[in-house]
Amino acid sequence: MALVKLYLGVLLCAPLALAAGIAEVIAQTPELSTLNSILTTDHPDLLAELNATAGTFFAPSNDALNAFISAADPNQLTAEVLKDLVNYHLSPTTLSAADLGQAGGKIAETKLSDPAFANLGGPANVVYASAYGSTGQDAAPGPLKVYSGIGGESTVTNPDIQYDGGLMHVIDRVLDFPQSCTTTMQAKSLTTLLDAVKRTNYADTIDLPAKFTCLAPTNEAIQGAGIDISALSDQQVLDALKYHSIPGEVDYSTVLEDGKEYPTLLGPTVKVHKKDGQLYFNDVAVQQGNIITNNGVAHVLSGVLISPTDAWATTTAVDTATTI
Ligand SMILES: *[C@@H]1O[C@H](CO)[C@@H](O)[C@H](O)[C@H]1NC(C)=O
């Protein structure tokens, strides 16, 4: 009898000791106590859903969540927003820090399929993970980061925590939702470009299609190229904007091929180069790559793209790419 009891005890206890859903691992990880209390106290349904999923979870640390909460409007943190937020931090595939930190970086699909944040013609939106900078081209690996919307960068501070369904990585900053290209320009203070977009009523052209790649020169890039937009006609501005637009595809750096040409909305192509630790369109280096937008991706440029037919070329053509 005693033996049978012992046998049963071992049988029952062994699986219990092994079972560690996300819920249990979050509860056991001190740096996730804020996340744990939000989920267990206020959102048990969300916790149950999270606990039932498999894949990769980017878990915001206590500092990350406290900073996020203090910056947010509490009225806007509805159950629906929190659910979207959890979904954006979840990838359906199990990706280790080594997978995410591979040379060139890694696009990871998430579970964020709310059409407000995922207008990609079907699939859920993504994050870009990289230990090689925002373009994935750095010569040597640095900290593993997760790049999200509006230029947000989160560093993985505690990688590869195992749970039943996959892996969890603690991050030091809550991921930002992907926004439209023009909202992204605003967030990145690309005001000269944004003024040009407004003047030509160009916003819908880049914000509404289901797949789009925005190339976005900084204010300094436009000024450095000697371009005075107020001196150009509306048509000239529109043509210049179209040469910075790649319609119909989402060209993350991982998709772009060295030496390949990509047709712009204007017609002429831009040619991609990956060299000297940088990502280039024509001879212009990307200053910040892979900003995830709701309908694709934006790359911030350190210079201006001059198309063969572009009126901008008639102003002083300074090669700003070499000044960074
Ligand atoms: C989470 O899932 C595990 C199985 O992976 C289960 O043992 C545990 O009871 C679940 N916890 C909650 C809070 O739902």
UniProtKB/TrEMBL annotation:
Signal sequence region: 1-19
Transcription keyword on record: no
Domain FAS1: 19-175, 177-305
InterPro entries linked: Adhesion/Biosynth-related, FAS1_dom_sf, FAS1_domain
Swiss-Prot/TrEMBL keywords: Signal
SUPFAM superfamilies named among the record's database cross-references: FAS1 domain
Cellular component annotations (GO), alphabetically ordered: extracellular space
Record has Phosphoprotein as a keyword: no
Alphabetical list of PANTHER family matching this protein: FI19380P1, PERIOSTIN-RELATED
Name of the protein: FAS1 domain-containing protein
Organism: Coprinellus micaceus
